[in-house]
User: Fold this.
Amino acid sequence: MLIGLNQYLRMAQHDERLARCAGRRCDDIPWVLLRRLAHRRRQKGFYDAFTLMLFRRAWQRSRRASCLLDYLAYCRDLGRPLPLARRAELSDALPALHGRRFYLAQGLLAESGGDPPTQWGEVLREVCRCQQTWRSQFAAHVAQCRDQGICVVGNAPVMRGSRLGSFIDGQGLVMRFNRFYYDPSSAVDSGKKHDVWVRSPSLDRAPPAAVRWVVVSGPDVIFRLRNWGALADIVEQGVPVLTVPLEVWRALVKKLMAPPSAGLLSLAWLRQLLGSWQGVSAVGFSLGDSNCPVPRATRHHWAQEQALLRRWQADGLNLVSDAAKETEHG
Assistant:
C-alpha cells in the first residue's frame, strides 16, 4: 500500500487533478507522504490554499514540532505573519528544533514580538533597528525622483539591441537586479546608471560601486535571512539596506498563486509608494513574445507574471521594449 501511495504522490506533484484527489484521500495517506507532497508543491511554486492544507494536515496528523514549523513557515511564505494564537505552541516546540529550523522558528517568534534570535550579528541588528527609518527615506526619495522618471531595469535578453541606454541614464532613479552586468560596449542598450540594487537573499555577489540603496528581495526577510555578512561593508559605509514590506509580497502572492520575481515585487512596491504608475518605466521585461523566450522553469509562474505586467501596462505602467517605441510613447 505504501509503495502504491508513494508512486501516486510522485505523479500528483505534476498533475493538479491527481494532487487534489490525494488531498481528498488524506485519511488514507501517511502524514510523511502528505508532507512530502506539500514540500514538492512549494518547491514548484504552488502558493495556494491546497498546499497550505497539505502542510496543516501533515502537522495535525503527526503533531511533530518540525511539521508545525513547516506549516507556520509556509503561512509566512504566503505573506501571513505568525498568528498570536500559535506563539506559545511554537515556543514550546523550540527544544525539538535544531540548526536552520531552530533559527527559522526564532525568527518567526521575533517577528511577532518576541526576543531577537541570539545568533543575530551586529549587521542584522543595525538593519532591523534602522529599517523603518530607511523605508521612510526611500519612499521620500522615490517621490522626489518621480518627475525626472523612475526606471526599473530587468535582465531579460530583450535588452540586446534596444538602444535604451540614454533613456535609462536620463532617469532620476534607476533600479537593477542581482548579477546585472555592465560592459561599456553595451551601454548603448542598457546604460550604466544604478541607484538601487535589488538582490536575492542567497546572492553572494558584492554590491556594485556607488550604489545608493540596496534592497533584499523576498517576503521581508529580516527575520529569515541568516547570512548578512556579505552586506557588512556596505552597511558600515552608510548605505541603507531595505527589505520589501510583507504586505506587498502578500498581495502579489494572492494574485499569482506563486512567489513573485524580484522584478515584479519591486514594481509593485513602487506602485504602492507612489499610488499610481505615473513616472514609472520598466525595461528589460519579457511579455512572452517570440523574440524573448520564457525563462527556464523556476518557482516563478512566468505566464501569470506576464499577464499581470500587461494589466499594469494598461493601467499606466510605461513598459518599454526599445528606443524607437519609447520615442513614440514620449
Remarks:
- The mean pLDDT is 86.
